[in-house]
Amino acid sequence: MNKGKDVLIVGVGGQGVLLASEILSSVALEAGYDAKKSEVHGMAQRGGVVSSHVRFGEKVFSPLIPEGEADVILSFESAESLRWVHFVKPDGVIIVNDYRLIPPIASLKGFDYPPDPLAKVKDRVRNVKSVDALEIANKLGNPRMVNTILLGTLSTSIDIPVKIWEKIIQERVPKGTEELNLKAFAAGREM
Amino acid sequence: MKVILSGNEAVARGCYEYGLHFAAAYPGTPSTEILENISKYPEIYSEWTPNEKVAFEVGMGATFQGARALVAQKHVGLNVAADPFMSMSLIGAPGGFIVVSADDPGMHSSQNEQDNRYYAKFAGYPCLEPSDSQEAKDFVGIGLNMGITYDVPILFRMTTRVCHSKTVVETRERKEYEIKGFNRDPKKYVVLPAHGRVLHPMAVKRLKNLQKLSETIEINRIEKGKSGIGVITSGISYQYVKEVVPEASVLKLGMSYPLPIQKIKDFASTVDRVFVVEELEPFIEEQIKAQGVECEGKKYWTNVGEFSPEQVEKGFIEAGVLHKKTKKIQREEVINRPPIFCPGCPHRGLYYTLRKLKAVVTTDIGCYTLGVLPPLGAGDTCVEMGASIGVGVGMARAKGDGKNIVATIGDSTFLHSGMTGLLNAVNNKSDITIVIADNSITAMTGGQQHPGTGKTLMGEETRKVDLVEICKALGVKNVRKVDTYDLEETKRVLKEEMQSGELSVVITTRPCALFPPEIRKKILNKPFKVDLDKCTGCHICLQVSCPAITEIDQKTDKGLTKVHIDPSLCTGCSVCAQVCPVDAIIQTD
């Protein structure tokens, strides 16, 4: 068995962060690891900050990844990658979906959405992968594939056989969309 | 089989495997999913009750009958059930009775962060504290056995992190148990003063026996380490300790009340320094210090908020056990995303109007508490479930009249504990305005049924209580309904009632835009869009605080940003269109 990984998946409520972390933790369990998953999300059903910690390895204790120890951060939204940047190891990977969700409070005085969050992330971390998952999803003909595309990109940073990923994705996605999701996963892997 | 379950799912699984017969609860984060998951097992009877006190009472009844029973609530829910909780200690729990208290350190979704382990000490119940999902499942079995053996209810204390984290669990099959039937015994089950005086010393003796059990029970275990450091810990803190100081010896308390004092003394004698690492209050630390054991705890770890691995680490650094690490990547503060009403939420029009009318709003617990946040900003007091009405009545009496005072309360909260407040308002001739924000679901906790929805937890149809009839039966003469999607009507009705000089109840009529999911299709209207030629960039529409409306880069001649409505989020409620002064927001074809 390979050494495990600590993966922090972040984004905004309603984007599918929790489903992505469910899939990753199931993939890890299927691959024979001990796995833990823990998330923090505010009170609102939609629009709040969401972060989900997935840890797997031979034996996992804390369900929360200590700051500065994540191997990978997968961010569904641009500014969210900056919010959580201090969680990644200096030699870790950050995968960012190049997509902005500007919160309504940005219209109030004193609250500004960062003009170029990705540049600030790149100032701090060497290994940053930016993916325009919506563009790829639209090319595949379904904007809902964003989630699976990002999982595809994430899978290239994680040493678990592709077959296991594909099996779990097929189990978890809505019936009838399996094939399209596998295509999306493959497209994400090529990023 | 190995599966990955949340702590709450694991408790439900434990209930299934260990032959539970009966479960009841009122929803409350972070405990809600326990009953939701129990209801998936048809072998167990389960029900939502109007509040935690009622859940506790029906649970008591079931265990008096000899059934294996469980009730679950959030920490503040146990305050509601505290009356039966305290007295049941004298009676016991012949069938086995688990009382889950899901505490919320860090207040992810609560008004306080009380440490309910003190309730175990207060009432003389044993306290079990699982630290992951496997333990959450196993401890249900241990708790039921302990409860039956010692005729005692169990305080099963979880925290948000344990409830909501998913960890690996080994499952087994269900074992069935017979319900033995009620054994008539008034000296036990009728807690008259005369009986209570006999029962109390028996409960004290029972606690002594439980203390002996705590010394030997395998869930209070020592994990011998390589360093001279000894850590006594329980619950989620155990996981952080193992993460941060893997070399330390650990005394892990699965049963944290009564404490295994001799085991603790023996453990302390084998190490150089004893630390107590516990989230929130120094519950363990104070008790063992009182027994003369030298230890360090709250000196290094705060009693405020939720723990994290780095916080536990920081305490050990301050104590000189660990060396300071240099953090390599710097943190950056980023614009927050405070929770706001969903698109199509019926509360939006209500709180927008209350703000415009400059009402003094005593509000209550639910999604609608968010009405207090800017830019809506309507909400002046909020304490606990049902408080809105009593607080409004008291404020009005002290002020001299109830003009301008509006108590707002959700349907589920009203049925939980608003009815007695309303009865009092009638009886003592209050003249405030009460708004029942009736969205026909318990929305905040994720869409649970209540007596006003017409469905039970197990999915059966049942009689749907009528809020108008309830208010009238409680003696309110003036009960009106209002559609909060119609801002003009909402304003007119509220203004009239706020000035009327007599008690009135206004009930809003629009359902939740999110739950149950099938309702969404019914309410979904054609989305609205912004006519960018007309938009003047005044941003009045942003004052209704809808996640579907955002500013865009396009600007007016005066340099003001225009707005856009996301058609995939907009439900077509039309509230933003009603506030637009230039009719720039129009419905799509």
Kindly describe this structure.
The complex is a heterodimer of chains A (about 190) and B (about 600). In chain A, helix 1 packs across helix 6, helix 4 crosses helix 5 and helix 4 crosses helix 7. Chain A is built from seven helices and six strands; from the N terminus they run βαβββαβαβαααα. The mean pLDDT of chain A is about 95. Helix content of chain A is about 35%, strand content about 25%. Chain A starts with a strand and ends with a helix. A six-stranded mixed β-sheet of chain A has the order 2-3-1-4-5-6, with helices on both faces. Chain A is of the alpha/beta class. The radius of gyration of chain A is 16 Å and the shape is globular. Helix content of chain B is about 35%, strand content about 15%. With about 600 residues, chain B is an alpha/beta fold. Chain B is globular. In chain B, strands 3-2-4-5-7-6-12 form a seven-stranded mixed β-sheet, with helices on both faces. Chain B starts with a strand and ends with a strand. In chain B, helix 3 (about 50-65) packs parallel to helix 5 (about 80-90) and helix 11 (about 235-245) crosses helix 14. The chains are: A alpha/beta (about 190), B alpha/beta (about 600). At the A-B interface, helix 1, strand 2, helix 2, strand 5 and helix 3 of A face strand 1, strand 8, helix 11, helix 14 and strand 20 of B.
Largest sheet report of chain B: 7 strands, mixed
Helicity range of chain A: 25-40%
| Mean pLDDT figure of chain B | 96
**Global geometry of chain A:** globular
How many angstroms does the end-to-end distance of chain A come to?
26 Å
Assign a percent range to the helix content of chain B: 25-40%
- Shape type of chain B: globular
Proportion of strand residues of chain B: 15-25%
Order of adjacent strands in the largest pleated sheet of chain B: 3-2-4-5-7-6-12
Beta content of chain A comes to 15-25%
Which ranges of chain A are low-confidence, i.e. pLDDT below 50, for 5 or more consecutive residues? none
Low-confidence segments of chain B, ≥5 residues, pLDDT <50? none
Helix and strand composition category of chain B: alpha/beta
Structural class of chain A: alpha/beta
Oligomer: heterodimer
